[in-house]
Amino acid sequence: MELTTRAVHVANPPFPDGSRPLSVPLVQSSAFAFESADALAEAMAGPDGRYVYSRRGNPTVRALEQTLAGLEGGAGGAIAFASGMGAISGVLLALLKPGDRVVAQRCLYGGTYAVLSDLAARYGIDVVYVSGDDVAEFEEAAQHPATRLLVLETVANPTGQVPDLPGLLSAARWLGVTSVVDNSLASPVLCRPLELGADIVVHSTTKYLSGHSDVLGGAAVFADDELRRTVWPRTVELGACADPFAAWLTLRGIPTLPLRMREHCANAEALAARLAARDDVEAVHYPWLPGHPSYKNARSVLSGGGGLLSFELAGGRAAGRAFIERVGIARLALSLGGVESLVTHPASTSHRELDGPALAAAGIAPGLVRMSVGIEAVDDLWADLRQALEQGAP
Ligand SMILES: Cc1ncc(COP(=O)(O)O)c(C=O)c1O
After folding, report:
1. 21-67 residue pLDDT tens
2. What are 175-209's pLDDT values in tens digits?
3. Which domain holds residue 103?
4. pLDDT in the model for residue 306
5. SS3 letters for 284-330?
6. Within this chain, do residues 115 and 71 fall inside the same structural domain, yes or no?
């Protein structure tokens, strides 16, 4: 079945009596009762048996995990988390030990960069950054025998960089390095990194998967069941598990994901082209736009340009900050991937942990504006951006 059909028919196991509710039931219970001490002891053995305690597993959460594994093509299943950062921290903490090396793409989400910096400073993990575009550079960094993980993002936030996923993932596999790809910005509609050779896909389901800016969540989806069984006990200890209601809200969003992604992509592509044609916009970063450094990679691994674009205004930091206060339909707010358009200033928000040189290395200009393009009518969005641009110097 095509992804659009699979998204509508989310995992929804029948009741024991055989009746089948159309909507996934919300099982809002922290614990589950047992008929015998033996049955309870047996249920404690692993991630997939009977439900015991909702930090270890819950029917609503499992329906989400099965749905995400189905959408991403994760033969090893999935683990749902309380947030995207819960998923990223859970996977990194589960798979790394002091002395290990991580090779990571330079332009990563600020939160991921912060965890890796913390692991380097406090836990003796060696983190080496590479461009993401150069397989030979990665191979050289990963030759070190302690190399354990490769960390990438399908579409980097906010520059829109799309790394050479097929090249890097096959090199990682050949070198025996486990690869982790954050697919939050592409969603499984635009790219399925496991099909390109990734071992683990992580998501902030807060973004496109849930899609309505009303819930936090995260997930890790695994190519291989053994890897999920390695990560699961550590995540149970960490406690960053998905809450059943959060899982239910996320499941509520998934059936419209393919429809929403189509609108996000069409609107963002149109706005990127209109912005790029203006003299008061110095640069537009949208990977589907000819001229973007990742244009070739984007066209080969994505089935659409995505809903996130960023642009640099003539006038630098002051102009960028003024612009985000001048828009009316687009709201000034963090996050992305919801149905409504949002604008932010990355240098003072998501990437504020980065100093000047690190910001420059990540490709983030001081006056960069990031826009999560929603599904409103594109001409209304354009009129909003145009009036904000035309108000003149701040
Ligand atoms: C690419 C990416 N990964 C991970 C995260 C973290 O997700 P969460 O806020 O759900 O913890 C974000 C949040 O903005 C993100 O943009």
Report:
1. 999 999 999 999 999 999 999 999 889 989 999 999 999 999 999 99
2. 999 999 999 999 999 999 999 999 999 999 999 99
3. 3-255
4. 98
5. EECCCCCCCCCHHHHHHHCCCCCCEEEEEECCHHHHHHHHHHHCCCC
6. yes
Atom of ligand 1 nearest to the CA of 184: 1
φ, ψ at 126 (rounded to 5°): -90, 115
**Is the bond preceding 158 in cis, omega lying within 30 degrees of 0?**
yes
For ligand 1, whether the C-beta of 184 sits within 6 Å is: yes
Distance of alpha carbon 135 from alpha carbon 229, whole angstroms: 30
Kindly report the three-state secondary structure assignment for every residue of 120-143. Answer: HHHHCCEEEEECCCCHHHHHHHHC
Q: Are residues 192 and 333 in the same domain?
A: no
Same domain, 240 and 343: no
Per-residue confidence (pLDDT) for residue 252, from 0 to 100:
98
Residue from 164, 182, 199, 384 carrying the catalytic annotation: 182
Number of domains the chain is built from: 2
Confidence of residue 13 (pLDDT cuts 50, 70, 90): confident
Compute, in degrees rounded to 10, the torsion defined by CA atoms 309, 313, 318, 320.
Answer: -20
Residue 40 lies in a domain: yes
- To the question of pTM greater than 0.90 for the whole model, the response is yes
Q: For residue range 277-288, what is the model confidence (pLDDT) as tens digits?
A: 999 899 999 999
Looking at residue 60, which CATH number applies to its domain?
3.40.640.10
State residue 381's pLDDT score: 98
* CA 204 – ligand 1 centroid, Å: 5
Q: What is the CATH number of the domain that holds 341?
A: 3.90.1150.10
Pair 178, 283 in one domain? no
Beta bridge partners of 310: 285, 370
CA of 84 from ligand 1 middle (Å) equals: 5
> Both 10 and 100 in a single domain?
yes
Average pLDDT, the chain: 95
Q: Are 81 and 160 within one domain? A: yes
Q: Are residues 229 and 146 in the same domain?
A: yes
Domain endpoint, select from 255, 281, 311: 255
